[in-house]
Amino acid sequence: PVFDFKPKGHLELGEGLDIIRQRRLSHVSGHRSYYLCGAGALLQHALVTFTLQKLLSKGFLPMTVPDLLRGAVFEGCGVQPSATPSQVYTIDPARFEDLCLAGTSEVGIAVPWGVFWGPLSRVPPPPSRVVCSSTCYRTETDTGREPWGLYRVHQFTKVEMFGVTAAERGTESEELLDEFLGLQKEIFSELGLHYR
């Protein structure tokens, strides 16, 4: 949209409303972290609830997944925890051998479909649609500049859609991706948000 005023960024708005606190936190949690306060914390919970309810009404199976997963699980999903640099936090191997913090619920969701240990008895057959709200942890390697705001942070909450399809016609995956894209557009439109 075209505004007749100079728009402010989300961090400037959030700080002005005292719902986002990010500056001067290095002594608490280091750089690239933040606090959501008052209406900011309530807004995050409301957005998660809104999105979960929307996707449940579309037949998605809700799941929660572990935040800590073995390195082999990451590798099976194409993520290399030992890469340099890596976006994966590894737990102290002297205390917990081969455990990492998940950067996305996708890694934990993939497990029940037999990627590693065989399917769970209650997982529906393809096409399956799963929704998961999780805390995501990422090291966010240095990009050459230090961003401010709720981008490239070390910890955040995300609602994720995940799907498993058959491969009989060869178009099922693309069709499910189109369905997910349509749902994302619906969510943003219903919230009155502009998007690309």
TrEMBL record:
Gene3D superfamilies noted in UniProt: Bira Bifunctional Protein, Domain 2
Family annotation (SUPFAM superfamilies): Class II aaRS and biotin synthetases
PROSITE patterns given in the database record: AA_TRNA_LIGASE_II
Molecular function GO labels: ATP binding; serine-tRNA ligase activity
Aminoacyl-transfer RNA synthetases class-II family profile domain segment(s): 4-196
Domain of life of the organism encoding this protein: Eukaryota
An individual GO BP term: seryl-tRNA aminoacylation
PANTHER family (alphabetical): SERYL-TRNA SYNTHETASE (PTHR11778)
Name this protein carries in UniProt: SYSM protein
Species name: Rhodinocichla rosea
